[in-house]
Amino acid sequence: MLRHKPDKSITFIDRCELTGEVDVHSIRERAKMSGILLYRLIQRGYTNVLRMIPEDEVAEKERKKASAALQQEMQLLHQEHIKTVTKMDDQDCENKLKIVFNSLRD
Fold first, then answer.
1. How many CB atoms neighbour CB 6 within 10 A?
2. Which of the residue ranges 20-24, 30-34, 77-81 would you say has the lowest mean pLDDT?
3. Are 1 and 19 in contact (CB under 8 A)?
4. Do the Cβ atoms of 39 and 2 come closer than 8 Å?
5. Phi/psi at 21 (nearest 5 deg)?
6. Which of 6-10, 50-54, 92-96 has the lowest mean pLDDT?
7. Which of 24, 65, 79, 98 has its CA 20 to 30 A from that of 50?
8. C-alpha distances in angstroms, 15 versus 75, 76, 95?
9. What is the C-alpha separation between 5 and 38, in angstroms, rounded?
């Protein structure tokens, strides 16, 4: 009810049986103002949430892109490292074979 018609938030006062010297008009006005203020706060909060959702989605997409780029870079570095180690092992084997062959010649 407050979402669509904040003025209706004071209808409960009409249903109450107030005794004694109570200023019903003053109570009704305060309740109406409180309802309107609450409605405005809810609107502001809702607007802020709706504004933040796309911003968060964009930030999440950027984080995913950065993570994917980092993973790809790590894979490339790993592959380069493997190639380097393999090349070093091949060279090391060649050097050892040369030493063995040279020792056999002598």
1. 19
2. 20-24
3. no
4. yes
5. -90, 90
6. 6-10
7. 65
8. 72, 75, 101
9. 12
> Cα–Cα distance between 7 and 13 in angstroms, integer?
12
DSSP assignment of 10-31: GHHHHHS---SS--HHHHHHHH
Convert the pLDDT of each residue in 9-21 to its tens digit.
666 666 666 666 6
Cβ atoms of 10 and 36 within 8 Å: the answer is no
Q: Residue 44: what residue type?
A: R
Map tokens 């009704």 to a residue: 28
Q: Which two tokens stand for residue 83?
A: 């190639």
